[in-house]
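Backbones bend. We report:
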Amino acid sequence: MSEEKSVIDSEVIIQQIVMPNDTNPNNTIFGGVVMSWVDMAAAMVAERHSQKHVVTVHIDDITFLSPIKVGDHVSVKAQINYVGKSSMLIGCKVVAENPRTGDKRHTTSAYLTFVALNDVGRPTEIPGIKVESEEEKRRFKEGMARVKAQKDKRKTKK
């Protein structure tokens, strides 16, 4: 498929407020809740880019940097970093904001790989991406290295 799409065309930002049922006894969010928000935002990016149904095939390097507390406002920003033939590497950044003070902090980063599926559930070819800004070029290059490392790791496991 020769068509290419801009990174910005599929970018997603979802926002949530942390409620008591999202948290543990320390009144900080369960990691699994954050992971589900990240997976949802990344899936939306992958579907926007490919215009196909997608499945998560790999979550790489999810890092929890600081706690997210009850009442915090949370933004999950997801964007496509790299595209293969049928797969997409999506980068996610989670930022929590204390709505009373306005303080914002980067709390979580993650990289997820999705595969686009055709109507019978098989991997299908997708458009490439246009990397325009220096930041997009850097993310594309890093994404290519991540994908290569994943493939090398799978080979050594066989």
